[in-house]
Amino acid sequence: MEPTVHIGQRSIRGTSADGVRAFRGIPYAAAPTGAHRFEPPRPAEWTGEFDARNFGPTAPQASTTGMPDLTAIVGTGWTPGDDYLSLNIWTPQDADCLPVMVFVHGGAFTSGSGSAPGYDGTVFAKSGVVLVTINYRIGVPGFLHLPGVPDNRGLRDQIAALEWVREHIAAFGGNPDAVTIFGESAGGLSVGALLAAAPAGLFRRAISQSGGAAHALTTAQAEVVTAAFANQFGTDAFAQIPDEALAKAATQLRATPLNLAVDGVRDPLMGLSAFGPVIDGDLLTEQPVAAVRAGAAADIDVLVGSNSDEMNLYLVALSAPETTESALQAAASTLHPDPAALIEHYRAAGRGTTPGEVLAAIGTDYMFAVPTARLADAHAPQPGGTWRYEFAWRSPAFEGRLGACHGLELPFVFGNVGRVDYGALGIPDDDSVRELAERMHASWVAFARDGDPGWPRYTPENPVVQRIDTEWTTTTTADGPERALWTGVRG
User: Fold this and answer.
1) Which of 10, 26, 130, 170 has the maximal Cβ count within 10 Å?
2) Backbone angles phi, psi at 395, to 5 degrees
3) What is the pLDDT of residue 371?
4) Could you write out the three-class secondary structure of the chain?
5) Directed axis angle between helix 370-379 and helix 186-197, to 10°?
6) Cβ contact 107:446 at 8 Å
7) What span, in angstroms and rounded, lies between the C-alpha atoms of 488 and 289?
8) What are the residue ranges in the chain where pLDDT is below 50?
9) 296 Rama class: left (phi>0) / alpha (psi -120 to 50) / beta
10) 23 close to 14: Cβ distance less than 8 angstroms
C-alpha cells in the first residue's frame, strides 16, 4: 500500500519498500519562473494530493555527459520543469520524533541536485534518521549579483526549505527540534553561510564537508561576474534570457575563469566557480567565518572536515593538462603574496614532488583545509561543541593517483558503498571498504542523534582531528608548518 502523509488540508503520496517510506519532488516553494525567477522564494502553491512517487525537476544546469562518470554525486544534469524548488524525504515505516538530517548538494553552485543517485537516503532511514535532500537555485538565478533584486537567492531557497522542514517534518516522523544540516563542496560552503545567515531555531547541528566559511564574494567581485554576463547578454535582458542560455554561459565561465582578484581581495573560490554567496549587507554582512567567530552560531554543534587530496578530483579525474613548473608558479602567485616561498615550503613538507602534486596540495589547503581549520577555530570557543575530521582513505582509481579526492567521502557518509555505482571515484566493494562506510555513516548518525560523532571535541587547548581511513587515528597536529604560510592571506 502506498503511504500517504497529511499536512493540513493537503496530502502527499509516496512509496514504500523494505521498511522505508520515500516521498520525492515535494515543492517547498513556488516555481521561480517568469517575474519570480530572481525574487525571494514564495510559499508553495499546490493543493489537494501531491504525487511524490517520483523525483521532480532539477534546477537549470548544463548536461554532465562527456565528463568522467560522476553521475552518482552530480546527477545527469537538468531535468526541465518549473517546480524544481523541491525536496525528497526518506523515513522509517513507523518513524516517530526521529532526528532529521537535511542535505545540501554540491556542484560549484552551477550543477547538482538532491536526487543524484548517491544521495539516496534509504540507509539513513534504516539507521533511524529522517533524511531530507533539497534542490535550490544555482548559477545565474541563484547567485548572480543583479541590481534591484536580492542577492543570495539560492541561500534564501535553502532557508525556505529548512522552514518547510521545521513546519512539516513531524508529519513524516521527524523531530523539528533535532535537525542537522549537512552539505559537501558548494553544499558545505552553504552550510558555513547558513551558520551566519539562517534564522535561529531552524537547525540544532551542522556538518560542513569540504566547505568552510570564508568563500563569500565581495560585492565588487560579484560585479565582475555580472559584467561578464552583461557583456554577453546586455544589461537589462536577464529576465528574458532562456534558462538554457544562462546555464550554458555559467558552465563556460568555469572553462575560462574570470579574474576575481579585486581591490586587493583574492578570489575565495580559486577559479573553481564564478558563483557563490555574496556579502550583500543583508543575509551576509561579512565572511561567514567572521560571524561565527563573533557568536552567530554559538549554540550550534558543528562538525567540519576536508579530504586529504581534494584537488586531485580536478587535476587527475577531470583530465586537466599536465602542470608545468611555470604553471605551478603562476597559479601560486594568484593565491599567495610569496609564491616562491609557498612552493618551497610545500615541497619541504613532503606535500608533493612534481609540479602537479605541489599544486594539488596548495589548492587543497587554500580552498578546503585551511578554511575548514579556521571555521573550527572560530567555533571552538563557543558553547556549542566543535568536532573536526580529515578523510584520508585513498581511492585506487587512476592508478592510485586520485587519492582522497574531493567528494570521495560522500559514498561513505551515505552508507551507499555497494549499493550505488560511483563511477570515476573508483570505490571497490570489498569488506574493508564496507566496514569503513558503516563506521563513517554511523558517526554522522550519532552526531545528528546525540551531538557526538565518537571522538574528542576540537577545542582551542586540544585541537583534536579525527583522521578517517581504514584505521582511524586522532591527532592534534593535523596542520603542518606549511599551512602557517596562509596566516593573514585569507579571512
Assistant:
1) 130
2) -70, 145
3) 97
4) CCCEEEECCEEEECEEECCEEEEEEEECECCCCHHHCCCCCCECCCCCEEECCCCCCCCCCCCCCCCCCCHHHHCCCCCCCCCCCEEEEEEECCCCCEEEEEEECCCCCCCCCCCCHHHCCHHHHHCCCEEEEECCCCHHHHHCCCCCCCCCHHHHHHHHHHHHHHHHHHHHCEEEEEEEEEEECHHHHHHHHHHHHCCCCCCCEEEEECCCCCCCECHHHHHHHHHHHHHHHCCCCHHHCCHHHHHHHHHHHHHCCCCCCECCECCCCCCCCCCCCECCCCCCCCCHHHHHHCCCCCCCEEEEEEECCCCHHHHHHCCCCCCCHHHHHHHHHHHCCCHHHHHHHHHHCCCCCCHHHHHHHHHHHHHHHHHHHHHHHHHCCCCCCEEEEEECCCECCHHHCCECCCCCCHHHHCCCECCECCHHHCCCCCHHHHHHHHHHHHHHHHHHHHCCCCCCCECCCCECEEEECCCCEEECCCCCHHHHHHCCCCC
5) 30
6) no
7) 14
8) none
9) alpha
10) yes
Evaluate whether the domain defined by 4-486 bears CATH number 3.40.50.1820. Answer: yes
Whether 113 and 59 have beta carbons less than 8 Å apart is answered as: yes
Closest residue by Cα to residue 112 from 95, 134, 96: 134
Domain borders along the chain are: 4-486
Output the CA–CA distances (angstroms, integers) from residue 363 to 33, 369, 424, in the order listed. 37, 9, 21
Residue 235's pLDDT is 60
Residue with cell 503511504: 3
Cα 426 to its chain centre, rounded Å, is: 21
Over the stretch 65-92, which tens digit does the pLDDT of each residue have? 656 889 999 998 899 999 999 999 999 9
Q: What value does the CA radius of gyration of the chain take, rounded to a whole number of Å?
A: 21
DSSP bridge partners of 463: 458
CA distance 486 to 488: 6
Q: Under a CB-based contact definition with an 8 Å cutoff, are residues 184 and 444 in contact? A: no
Beta pairing partners, 471: none
According to the model, what pLDDT value does residue 491 have? 54
Q: Does the predicted TM-score (pTM) go above 0.85? A: yes
Q: Do residues 298 and 382 lie in contact, with contact meaning Cβ atoms separated by under 8 Å? A: yes
Active site positions, annotated = 185, 310, 406
Residue position matching grid coordinates 549587507? 281
